[in-house]
Model the fold of this input.
Amino acid sequence: MKANVRFIIAACVLGLLMVGPFGLTALLLFLDSKDAEREAFAQFLLPRLPLGGFMTLIGFIGGVILLRSLFQQYVHALSRMAETLRLMLGANRNFRVAPEGPPEVCDLARAANDLARQRNELLDDVEAQIRVAKATVEEEKNRLAALMSELALGVVVCNLDGRILLYNSRARLQFKALAQGPTSMSGGALIGLGRSIFSILERGQITHSLENIQQRLRRGSAEPTANFITATRGGQLLRAQMAPVLGRAETTGEEGAANPIGAEPQVTGYVLTIENITRNFEREAERDQALQTLTDGNRAALGNIRAAVETLLDSPEMEAEIRERFMRVISDEASAMSSRLDATMNRFADSLKTRWPLEDVLAIDILSAAARRIEDKLKLPIKHEEEDASLWMRVDSFSLIQAITFLASRLQDHYEIRELRLRLAAEGKMVFVDLIWSGTTVSSETLYTWELEPMNVGNETSPLTLRDVVERHGGEIWYQREKAAHRAFFRIVLPAAATPDAPVADQAQHLHSDSRPEYYDFDLFAARDAEGANIDLDRKLSELAYSVFDTETTGLQPSQGDEIIQMGAVRIVNHRLLRQEIFDQLVDPRIPLKPEGIPIHGITEAMVAGQPQLDVVLPAFHEFCHETVLVAHNAAFDMRFFQLKEDSLGVKFTQPVLDTLLLSAVIHPNQESHKLELIAERLGINVIGRHTALGDAFVTGEVFLKMIPLLADMGIVTLRQALEAAQKTYFARIQY
Done:
C-alpha cells in the first residue's frame, strides 16, 4: 500500500478517535435519560456544540499536521532510504544514504552506510582478483581487435540467421561508402552488430554459397570455402569469400548422456571476406573499350594503307600525280591512326597504367611519412606549406615515399640545399606533390638523368627508377621555377582517389570512446532472430535491441511550429552500448532559431545552414532504427515531432517506445526529480556532452542499461511489463 493511502487512512482513524468517543457518550446519555432530562441535556449541549465542534476541528487539524510530520520523518524518509539502498546494492554502489530526519532514522542511515562501506571493501577485493584473472583474456581480445582492425580486407562474421556478430573497420568503411541515400551522410551505416547481412548482400547468393560449403563438408573437403561476386542495392560489385565457422554437435549415448566423442562438426556461422571490385571492373571495361576502339578504328585505316602501298609497289612507273594521291592517302590514314591512338591514350591513360597494385591513402599522411623519412635519413629540415587535408591519392605509398626521398637526397648531394618544403594541392582528378627549395636551379637534363637512375639513398638500394614509379602510377614529374620568390620545385602529378575509404571525423568525435572499437559480440552466436521483423512484447528487456535517441529543437512547442535541428542516436545490442554505431546529423529547420535556445544546445544558424532537411534525415533515422525498440528521455516530446511529420513525409515509427523518465518514476517513485542529470547522478553515471543530441543519447543509453536490472528486481522483466508499468505513472499524462 502506498504511503499516501496509508496517511489518508490514518487521518480518518484519527478523526474517528477524536469525534467517536464524545459522540458515543453523548448518544448513550441521551438514550438513558428521561424526557425532562433529555430536554435539559439538549438545552445544555446545543449552545456549546459550535465551540466544541470548533475545538474538535482544531484538535483534528493539529493531529493531522503532527501525523503528517511523523509520516514525512519516518515513513517517507524510510521509503527514500529503501530506494537508496537498492541503488547501493545494484546500480551505484558508491551512492550513500543522506542522514536526515529524527535521530532514530539518522542512526539507521549511518548504520546502512557503514554496512555499504564494508560491502564495498569486500567487492573491491573480489573485483581485483577478477581483474587479474581476466587480464590475459582481455589482452587476447585486444590483439584480436587490433588484428581485425588492421586487415586490408573487410571481414564480417555472421550466424546462420545472417545476424552480424563481428566486423572490422575496413568492412565498416566499405559498406558505409556503398550506402546509398542519406544514411551514410548522416552518420548511419548499413552494417552493425545484430543487424542482418541480408540488408546489404543478396540473400539467395549467400544461402546458395552456404549450401555448397555444407555439401563440401559432408564430402570431407579440406578447404570448404565458396567464392562469389554479388551486387549491393546501390549497384556496387563485391567479391566475397565465405568460410564456415564450425562447432561440435553433441551426440547422445545409450544412456542419454552427452557424448562429444565422434561428434561431427556443424556449421554455426560463416566468415565473409569482402572486397569492392567495382573500380577494378570499371577499369577492365575501360581497357576493353580502348582496345575495341583501337581495333575497329584502325582496321579500315590499315586496309587503306596496305592497299595504297601494294598499288605503289606493283606500279613503279605510276604517274607523279597519281603517286602523290596514294601517298596522301597513306599520310592521312596514318595521321588518323595516330590521332585515334593519342585520343585513346589520353582518355584511358589512368586505366591503362594502373595495373600495379595501388591503394587509396590520405595524401597528407604520405607527405608526413616522407618528411619523417627525409629528416631521419638525410638530416634535412622539412617545412610544410599549404596542404589540403581532405585529398586522397591512389598510390603505392612505399615506392612514392622512396621517390620523394630520392629527389631530396639528390638535391642535397648536388646542390647542398639546407631546407626542403613540401606542398600539397589538387586540380581536377590529379593531386600535386611539390618539393620546393630556394636558390640553385636544376636543369631539365639533370632531372632527365635522375629519372633514369636507380633510387638509391645511402645504404638503401632499389631496382626501381623515378620514371618507373611515376609511369606505374600513371603520373608525371615536372620541374618549375617561381622567379619572384627565387624558388624552384619538382611537381609529382598523381591520380586522385575517386572514393576515399575513410570518413571525415564527425563533430561528436570527442564523445566517442577512446578504447578499441567494439565491433564484435560472439554471444550473438546463440541468439536466433534476436531482433525479428516484429518485436515481441513478451521478450525480456535484456534480449532486445534498442535505438536510444534524442533531438535538439528550435523550441518546446512542436504543435506551434517548432522544428528539429539535430538528431542523435546510439544502438544497444546484447546489453551493450555500441558507441561506434551511431546516428548524428544536424538538420536545417527552414525557420529562424530562437536566440534563447542557442546557449542551451549550442547550435547556431551557421551550423544548420546547408544541412539536410528533415525530409531527408528522418527517413534515414527510420532506417537506422529498423527492428529495434526506441528509447528516449521524455520520449513523448520527441515522438510528437515525428507524429506531426507522418503525413507530409510518409515516415511512421510503429515500434514500441520506452521512456527513461517514466521508468525512473517506476523505479524511484519517492524521488522529487526525474531529470536526466539527477537520474544519472543517482545511478553513478558521468554526464558528458549534455544538450547535444548524441551526447544526451549516450547518457540516456547508459541510464537505461542501469535501469534494466533494477526493473528486474521489481518483477518487471519483459517489454510488455515495462510499457504497462510506465503508463501507470503520473508523468505518462504529459501531452505536447
The CA atoms of residues 378 and 728 lie 75 Å apart. The longest helix spans residues 35-89. Residues 250-259, 351-355, 499-516 have pLDDT under 50 and may be disordered. The first strand starts at residue 154 and ends at 159.
